[in-house]
Amino acid sequence: MQMDVDLQDLIVPAAVTTSALALSYCVYKKMALPAPRTLPRLLTKEVDHTTCERTSIIPDEDQAYIDSWPVMHTACEIFQRGLSIGAQNKCLGWRPAAGAPYSWLTYKEVDDKIRRMGSGFISKGFPACQETFIGIFAQNSVTWHCTMQMCNAYSMILVPLYDTLGCEAVQYILNTTKLQTVVVDSKRLAMLLQYITPECSLKSIILSDASPSDDDQAKASGFGIDIISLLELENCGREAPHDLVPPQPSYTALLCYTSGTTGTPKGAMISHGNIANCCMGISYNVWGFSVTSKDRLISYLPAAHVYEFAIECYFTMIGASVGFYQGNIKLLLDDIQHLQPTVFPSVPRVLNKLYDKIQEDIAKKPALVQWLISAGVASKLKEVEYGVLRQNSVWDYLIFHKIRKLLGGRLRMVITGSAPIGKNVLQWYRSVLGCFVVEGYGGTENCGVCTMSLFGDTIPGHVGVPAPYTHIKLKDVPDMNYFASQGKGEICVKGASVFSGYYNEPEKTAEALTADGWQLTGDIGTWTDNGCLVIIDRKKNIFKLAQGEYIAPEKIEILYEKCPIVAQCFIYGNSMKATLVGVVVPDDLYVKRVYGEDKDYTKLLASEEFNNDVMTAMKGVSEGVLKGFECVRKIHISPELFSVDNGFATPTFKKKRNVIAQHFLPVFEKLYVGLD
């Protein structure tokens, strides 16, 4: 990601700064603080004390707000509502070339396009029903979104594919679903053709852009597959139009295959009712925060994952605009600065990287500049703790407007999910951006959003409260010494956003869903005094050491990753060993700042001295927190981050534990020499 931030421009020249500071006290005293959002003392209500079951207070607190929303039952109704709000509103935007401004399709133009696409598929022999599966293998784009809306409008089932699934997983999905057609962009056509086997059921490929090469055309023909352009498909639909075939709420809208950290991917069946309930829940959970058709979203997180999918559906429900990035994460900031979004869905990995880059640039500035920025952050942090978010303080005019401009200058909301974000980073964004920063929690199986922090709640360290009409309870996990009676246990979710099961996987469905409809998340949680959910551990991936002690490696990794010198950590152990070892990826920005940029980075990381420094830092954060058997005894330093590109992480940045363990197994065996 390109992040050239000139923080020298963040302040006025030194001569003017002194005068500005002298005047700021008077201005600050006269500048009235906006009234903080008043929240009830308890943000959830208890349903069952024995299981710590809780649900939202929102229907009780503001039923008038709930009643003001028309009830949405399907994803088709969601888009039609956006169309009714403003047919000429900007709906989907893209940049046709690098450096070009955004071009837009209106809601009416998108509606026309999805009708042409749906009619075209019907004319090609794909009926509008639940037996028709439409694959999509493309980056976030107008085509991706319109394919999704077309499936919603004609009761077809969307099956997203994505690059990081890998060959075997894509083949598994193609064969399991018996996909007969896939919409693909030119960048991924050759990749898709490599994955096709004689058992594949594909009959046609819809190419969204450009024309196939002779080689690709020949490969497709060899498998008996026709490649036709999206334009040709739409022309067929224009010549033989078909009315929409709206779905029922129980119909499956999406087969969302989890990238998975182990084994073959599982296809979560997400219904129209799930999506509609999720979107309504987002509306209710930003209760008091007005999101309107004038808002604008930047879409860059993988659209094949339900987190991004749900947010885009929500934006079309309110008639707002969705702008797509160019497909290159290094150009994301340039896209943001041109689009000027008001809402920025993100993940901690991206937010942390931006935060680290800004901190690195600050550290290079003169002492006076650093002091001024620190004073501004400290002042605004006090306001955030008081519940005030604003962009009109003295510090905003002197300093922070430049950082906000880096993110387009119009942000009103940042949404973070998929992984925990550090409290200090979360509060820093709230203070510097002066906007609503929502931390949420959810998974594929509950449509991506089962809790969100409420508007006005600026206390960090939790993932918010359940969406309205969603219930969350805690379940005993005896092996890990967690009991609901003591306020801790596995998080279980029940409600209209919970999926119906995994496609053709009854055994795996039974592992994820109880007979009475509770989804078992595998995460361990507890409730704060005011009723917010806190994620404290992970049930899955636990293993037993030789002495019989259970280890939850992810809990330990989260702790060690609080060390400034540690970017990522992977803990390894098994039932044949009595101790833990690990791999540590150092934070290169921190290392270069502390050890000097002139150092030979490769040689430094390989040195025993550096290894000892990292171990000392890790010991510092674990003392008094971890038990002796939970502390790592030896580590290996690796310079390469666990990422999607190297196959060590999923697109939602979860570590692929089996892949990492297998890759570093020879390293772990060497680390164990002399330990047992």
Description:
The structure is a single chain. By secondary structure, the protein is an alpha/beta fold. It folds into 3 domains: 223 residues, ANL, N-terminal domain (Rossmann fold); 243 residues, Rossmann fold, CATH 3.40.50.12780; 130 residues, ANL, C-terminal domain (GMP Synthetase, Chain A, domain 3). Helices cover 38% and strands 19% of the residues. The protein contains 24 helices and 27 strands. The strands form 7 sheets. The protein has a 6-stranded antiparallel sheet with strand order 1-2-19-20-21-22. A 5-stranded parallel sheet has the order 6-5-7-8-9, with helices on both faces. Helix 8 links the parallel strand 7 and strand 8. Helix 11 crosses helix 12 and helix 15 crosses helix 16. The protein is globular, with a radius of gyration of 26 Å. It starts with 13 loop residues before the first helix and ends with a helix. 45% of the residues are buried.
Helix content: 25-40%
Looking at the structure, the CATH topology of the largest domain is: Rossmann fold
**CATH-level-4 superfamily name of the largest domain:** ANL, N-terminal domain
- Terminal CA distance: 44 Å
**The CATH top-level class label of the largest domain:** Alpha Beta
How would a crystallographer describe the biggest sheet? 6 strands, antiparallel
Principal-axis shape: globular
Strand order of the largest sheet: 1-2-19-20-21-22
The number of domains: 3
Number of helices: 24
Return residue spans where pLDDT drops below 50 for at least 5 consecutive residues.
10-30
Rounded radius of gyration (Å): 26 Å
Overall mean pLDDT stands at: 87
Number of E-type strands: 27
Q: Which structural class is indicated by helix and strand composition? A: alpha/beta
- Beta-strand content estimate: 15-25%
CATH architecture of the largest domain: 3-Layer(aba) Sandwich
